[in-house]
Amino acid sequence: MIDLRSDTITLPTPEMRKAMCEAVVGDDVYGEDPTVNRLQEMSAEIMGKEAAMYVSSGTMGNQIAILTHTRPGSEVIMDLDSHIYNYEAASASVFAGIQPRPLNGVKGVLPADLVEGAIRPDDVHLPPTSLICLENTHNRAGGKVVPLENMKSIYALACKHNLPVHLDGARIFNASIASGVSVKEYTSCSTSVQFCFSKGLGAPVGSIIAGPLDFITEAKRWRKRLGGGMRQAGIIAAACIVALETMIERLADDHANTRLLADGLAVLKGIDFNPAEVDTNILLVKPTSMSAHQLCSELKKRDILTGVMGPDKVRLTTSKEVDRSDLEITIKAFKEILTG
Ligand code: TLP
């Protein structure tokens, strides 16, 4: 099988497995797991934030950030196509009791004036705005790198209105590797950030949320409330340390592979996408002569797994589990399917 469904399918490297075997551990609910503590310190430093906390998933990281920043009955500004709005099972409404305020971004980018216009004035009839959420890279926009300038202008207006900004940076390292902009520059435009280890970085489990010390202190209480306090979590955190040490630079290979795939598919009739819009490891294509489901199932018959991202969108994601020859096979399969 060639698995292009997601970069979440990545398997731990031998070095990660060795580190997991040898990890020195303790009870992390007491703050006594040295491996978790080291991971959190490394992550806070890389993110340019005061403190960081290890959580079990990106979804938990985003949700704890929302719970910590907001209060029930308030409104959270986010992109209509964001992961938080689409793929977290409405948990921000269920747990935080917030009302999402989805805005129509342009390919993952929220124009700053649109965001500012959505901030509620102080009026007893209205839900007070409590948070702005951003996402970089942007998943449903096809792994798009959101420009630093856009983030800067949103952060500036958030500061003006005394609002926190949370960055869903599940793939923030992809954004940084692709653009040459440092992670710290991106995170300087947000109060808090969540990033994932279990995507292109290849570690088996976990995410980090990072932010100011008082935010992380409160976030720890939310993690506990949600049952996310883990005990000897150093076993899995050890793999995340290896990911930070060895797996960031290689994301460039995934980006080059997606470029190869995009160039190979761009010449084919029967699918539509703009190869110039491919920034990182995600490619979205729109089949024009069949549905997304049909295209996916034709590819599956040829042992190629892809993801459906809406009725007319198929997502192909590269990761360390696929190489150039897999992508050449994929291009050949598309040719067969589309030309009958
Ligand atoms: N994304 C998954 C699916 O949930 C769609 C994927 O295969 O891409 N933020 C962003 C931007 C994400 O893409 C994801 C996962 C998350 C948050 C949530 O991370 P997990 O899966 O660890 O909860």
Folded structure, characterized:
The protein has 340 residues and is an alpha/beta fold. It folds into two domains: 7-246, Type I PLP-dependent aspartate aminotransferase-like (Major domain) (Aspartate Aminotransferase, domain 2, 3-Layer(aba) Sandwich), CATH 3.40.640.10; 250-339, Aspartate Aminotransferase, domain 1 (Alpha-Beta Complex), CATH 3.90.1150. The protein has helices at 14-22, 34-47, 58-69, 83-86, 91-96, 112-118, 148-160, 172-179, 183-187, 213-225, 234-246, 251-266, 292-301, 324-338; strands at 2-3, 51-55, 75-79, 99-103, 129-135, 165-168, 192-196, 207-211, 271-272, 282-287, 304-305, 307-308, 314-317. α1 (14-22) packs antiparallel against α11 (234-246) and α12 (251-266) runs parallel beside α14 (324-338). It is globular. It binds ligand TLP.
